[in-house]
Specification:
Layout lengths: L6 H5 L7 H15 L8 H18 L1 H10 L24 H12 L22 E7 L1 H6 L1 E12 L15 E2 L8 E6 L2 E6 L8 E2 L12 E12 L8 E4 L15 E7 L6 E3 L2 E8 L1 H6 L1 E7 L2 E7 L8 E4 L15 E7 L7 H13 L6 H13 L2
Parallel strand pairs: 1-9, 11-15
Antiparallel strand pairs: 2-7, 3-6, 4-5, 8-9, 10-11, 12-13, 14-15
Helix pairs in contact: 2-3, 2-5
Length: about 375
């Protein structure tokens, strides 16, 4: 009796499993026991080979049919020459599975260029950059165009970004012979990895540019004009496409992100598109009412204070706020009234306040009356 394990048992599938179920089971085991994930682990390598062989048999309709009839005897040629060799599996139907597994293990990309092709494209996109820009309250409200100085990598002019000295050029990498990959044997698989000497480009620069020293780029301080749209707020970012670091070997430049920092204002605060402002008024103005001037982003405007106005009361000036981003309307200005208590008063004022205090017993102070009534009820 053969001491080999049943192939269905190895893969953990029923005998009625479809090809898709076989692929799924094999891929799970291959990812678990692949030698690259278990370096030096002989037991894992043995299980990987066992699963690969089982999948090869069961993925082939003819081999699977014969195995289902006579089991492992089919591999020993015991069917009148109609058997199959267990040592010569070609894994023809498993190529797509191997591609998935190697992509996951090695971090490669499916559908990429073959390792047998001569080198890879060295073009790489430039890095994105971020900087900050400070704007005043008014600049954020109405929009502004400002200058910005930024240090970024730009293409080296003498070598046109090639990194090679003028009159020379890249040469074939002597480690990978221009393939851009180093191939090594892992068990019965051949695995390709990017060449460490040329970083997968297949080329080396023997005579580097004297200006950029082979990098193909140089740091440069540049002045940019930035349009800040009306309505922008603290912490929002502007994107300047193509104004980041230059790409390598013809690759696209990265983008520049400008983070907006809003300067504090002497009078105003912001709540989305509304402008908040606190306005002080006197006792007499609060009691009798008044016409006062208040500051807005567009200048001073007149506002009516009704008699009996309370401290903390809010009033709204419509469309006196910030331009909404995109130019669709305006916010409002919200005025918070603060009834101010004088800290120093004249003798004459003191006499007037004493007279007012005597008269207040019969006056209408709804909050005070309500408070005193509740106190009396509490301590009765």
């Amino acid at each position: 009796m053969s001491d080999k394990r049943d192939y269905y048992e190895i893969l953990g599938i029923p005998r009625t499993a479809s090809k898709e179920e076989i692929k799924k089971a094999y891929r799970k085991l291959a990812m678990q026991f692949h030698p690259d994930k278990n370096p030096g682990n002989k037991e894992a390598e043995a299980k990987f080979k066992e699963a690969s062989h089982a999948a090869d048999i069961l993925m082939d309709d003819q081999k699977r049919s014969m195995y289902d009839r006579v089991g492992h005897a089919a591999e020993q040629g015991g069917m009148g020459g109609g058997g199959f060799s267990g040592g010569s599996a070609d894994f023809g139907d498993l190529g797509d599975i191997f591609g998935d597994i190697f992509g996951d293990i090695l971090g490669g990309q499916r559908g990429g260029r073959s390792g047998r092709s001569r080198g890879r494209s060295r073009a790489q996109g430039g890095a994105d950059l971020q900087t900050e820009m400070s704007v005043t309250f008014e600049e954020a409200a109405f929009g502004v165009e400002k200058e910005l100085h930024i240090n970024r990598s730009v293409q080296c002019e003498p070598c046109a970004g090639s990194g090679a000295k003028k009159g020379s050029g890249p040469v074939t990498c002597d480690m990978c012979q221009g393939h851009g990959e180093i191939r090594r044997q892992q068990g019965f698989f051949t695995i390709a990895q990017p060449c460490p000497k040329c970083q997968g480009s297949g080329q080396m620069i023997k005579e580097p540019c004297e200006i950029c020293h082979g990098r193909g780029r140089n740091k440069k301080k540049e002045k940019l004009s930035v349009k800040v749209p009306a309505g922008i707020d603290e912490g929002q970012r502007l994107k300047l496409s193509g104004q980041g670091d230059a790409g390598i070997n013809g690759g696209p430049s990265g983008d520049l992100y400008v983070l907006i920092r809003l300067e504090e204002h002497e009078f105003f605060k912001r709540d989305e598109y509304d402008v908040l402002c606190e306005v002080p008024i006197s006792f007499s103005q609060a009691a009798l009412g008044a016409e006062i001037e208040v500051p807005t982003l567009g200048g001073r405007v007149s506002m009516k204070i009704p008699d009996g106005t309370q401290s903390g009361q809010k009033m709204k000036l419509r469309n006196k706020g910030i331009t909404k981003l995109g130019g669709y309307g305006f916010g409002d200005q919200i005025i918070t009234i603060h009834v101010e208590t004088p800290t120093k008063i004249s003798k004459e004022q003191r006499e007037i306040f004493h007279r007012l205090q005597e008269m207040e017993q019969n006056s209408s102070n709804p909050m005070t009356k309500g408070f005193l009534d509740r106190v009396k009820e509490l301590f009765q």
